Amino acid sequence: MKFDTVIIGGGLTGLISGIRLMQKGQKCAIISSGQSALHFFSGSFDLLNNLPDGTPVNNPEASLLELSKQAPNHPYVKMGESKFTELAQKAKSFLTEIGIKTQGCSHKNHYRITPMGMIKPTWLTMSNFAFFEVGKFPWKKAAIINIEGFLDFNPDFISEAFEKIGVETSIAYFNLPELNLIRKNPSEFRSTNLSFVLDKEVNQDLLVKILSEKSQGCELIIFPDCIGFRNADLLPGLINRLGKPIYLIPTFPPSLVGVSTQLYLKDYFTKLGGVFMLGDNATHADIEGNQVTNLYTLNHGNIPISAKNVILSSGSFFSQGLLADIKQVYEPVFDLDTDYLTDRADWYNSNLFEKQNYQQFGVKTDKNFHGIKNDTPIDNLYVAGAILSGFNPLKEGCGAGVSFLSALYVAEQILIKEKTYEPIAQYK
Ligand SMILES: Cc1cc2nc3c(=O)[nH]c(=O)nc-3n(C[C@H](O)[C@H](O)[C@H](O)COP(=O)(O)OP(=O)(O)OC[C@H]3O[C@@H](n4cnc5c(N)ncnc54)[C@H](O)[C@@H]3O)c2cc1C
């Protein structure tokens, strides 16, 4: 099997780079062993919320100089300030062009509300999700409406968050007779299953009646993210009929918005002609000189997959793109050079809420994001996303930003190398 580019890992990074390369006429395959971090997605992409020393960031674009002083190996610093700004701006238009609407921009963080009721800064928030700037929330009274017995959304936590920003709230619960069928098994009473009932056409009139009654006297409805899974028109339709906005709040996992974003991107990639090898696992590769020549997977056994270029986007420890044993942190497919602290005692802090050093471990790359093996860059192997070293996604609040921008960056490197690249004035 021969491709222009083979991508290992079908999470946010692999899908964005795959779509970008397919848009430019490449023939690509994605090998993806399983679920990705998107299944736990909050509905907001973070670009840069804090500098490594903890200083809050309001304007990510204006923070690159200071970031380069504090974290010279940060993936954003490797790209350079102007490329960071260009790709951060283009990421939003890339999403818009493929049909994913978001709110926010890269020169000013806005705020979102977490399922725990915390108010956090972020970069891009999916449309219909609660989004605001400090002091600029336009609503005074909101109705928080939950489904009876749905424990992955806690209206009390959410109410506290809204009250902090000066919004008065009321809390109400409702039931639909059909929900009693899934309620019998508490482990089934999750956002994805609820949406199968709430999304049904036959339930829409009753839903409008209930939401209308429960939100009387309120200008806004706050609802858990458990609606509109397979029908993007459903929520706009409800809003239209109710005559007032509905803002979604993410629930505890599984994340409906994350699963639907993953499926949407995967479908987009395959509609462009990409091959998505779901449930397969890249195991090892042949490397000759400084080139990957063949890749092998669990399902294809000794039938090699070859490509002019390979992108490694297999994620961090969470997705087993990185593994650790008692002595070392390693990358299991190519055995690439990794960055980690040699003394295991320094890997983590026993205070869970403190900075955890292991989050910064990852695969070493050169400036062009080539993977490095035995100190030598591999010319046709690019590394992107959560597997990269040099950043702390949680403490810096930059997880999706690093994934998104490095995905676009490596795609661009490949297109330049293969001379099919046009400057990205527009993603067409
Ligand atoms: C639980 C969780 C929630 C997060 N939520 C957010 C959020 O809400 N907002 C935000 O900004 N950031 C968030 N992040 C940060 C996150 O890292 C990025 O947002 C981003 O989604 C990571 O994408 P990725 O594709 O690089 O890696 P992943 O999403 O981890 O995907 C890697 C993929 O590679 C596959 N894979 C691994 N090894 C192989 C192999 N050998 N062969 C084939 N496939 C393989 C895995 O199965 C997986 O599908 C979150 C991170 C985690 C862990």
Automatic annotation (TrEMBL):
Alphabetized InterPro entries for the sequence: FAD-dep_OxRdtase_2_FAD-bd, FAD/NAD-bd_sf, G3P_DH_GlpB_su
Superkingdom classification of source: Bacteria
Keyword check for Oxidoreductase: yes
Domain FAD-dependent oxidoreductase 2 FAD-binding: 4-402
Cellular component, GO annotation: glycerol-3-phosphate dehydrogenase (FAD) complex
A Pfam family it matches: FAD_binding_2
SUPFAM superfamilies assigned to the protein according to its UniProt record, in alphabetical order: FAD/NAD(P)-binding domain
Assigned keywords, A-Z: Flavoprotein, FMN, Oxidoreductase
Family: Belongs to the carotenoid/retinoid oxidoreductase family.
Name recorded for this polypeptide: Glycerol 3-phosphate dehydrogenase (Quinone) subunit B
Source organism of this protein record: Apibacter mensalis
Organism placement in taxonomy: Bacteria, Pseudomonadati, Bacteroidota, Flavobacteriia, Flavobacteriales
